[in-house]
Amino acid sequence: MEPIRILIVEDDLDWLRGLKAFLDRQPDLQVIRTLSTAEEARELFTASESDADVVLMDIMLQDEPAGIGLAEQALLAWGAKVIMLTSMEEKDFIFRSFQAGAIDYQIKSRFEELPDIIRGAHARKASINAAVAEQMREEFRRLKRLEHQFKVKEARDLITPTELQVLEMIDQGHTQTEIASRFFISLRTVKIHVGHILKKLGSPSSKDAAQKMRELGLFEQGNSTQTGDREKD
């Protein structure tokens, strides 16, 4: 069986030599190349085809988290399986590394575990640390919340209160004639409102536009206001 070929990108030369010697003692692992700067790695990923099965990538190179971008470059250029190396559990950097395409990471002080991690990566069996996995899930949830908030704000900026009421009635199944009667306006005015709404939201139909507003939760807010007004009456 051919050994697993490994490329190491690490700027601590003493640690690099020690790691290479340690991995080369494993009968099924072979360090075929080492690099110590981000510039060397970029040049290699750009200029040559992959000759490594697994890349060990230091997150911090010359005091910059350059390894994150290099991990993405290694993936795009080589399709390489990248394992990040870090001196401490820098959660943000590790999360960004996974976003860039890395499949695992290892704390340098626990280098004895690297052979098994490399074998798992080569076999496409990543063992993402549970704490990082949870942070990834939490970050995803945070991004989804921000995305929702942005869409709500965008909708509020685009749609007038009257247009929102028209959409809410459409969502409830009312016809344009019924909406005109409800607001004491002409059918032509309702059609103009609907035309403006479709143009603003880029929706193919009024029902589609109404569904978008419902999914953003804007109708629920409108309902609570209307209920309050009726109670005052």
UniProtKB/TrEMBL annotation:
Q: Which InterPro entries does its entry note?
A: CheY-like_superfamily, NreC/VraR/RcsB-like_REC, Sig_transdc_resp-reg_receiver, Tscrpt_reg_LuxR_C, WalR-like
Q: Name one Pfam family in it.
A: GerE
Domain called HTH luxR-type: residue spans: 152-217
Coiled-coil spans are 129-156
Ranges for domain Response regulatory? 5-123
List the CDD domains. Answer: LuxR_C_like, REC_NarL-like
> Could you tell me which residues carry 4-aspartylphosphate?
58
Q: Which controlled-vocabulary keywords does the entry list?
A: Coiled coil, DNA-binding, Phosphoprotein, Transcription, Transcription regulation
Q: Which Gene3D superfamilies does the UniProt entry name for this protein? A: 3.40.50.2300
PANTHER family, from UniProt? Answer: TWO-COMPONENT RESPONSE REGULATOR
Q: What is this protein called?
A: Response regulator
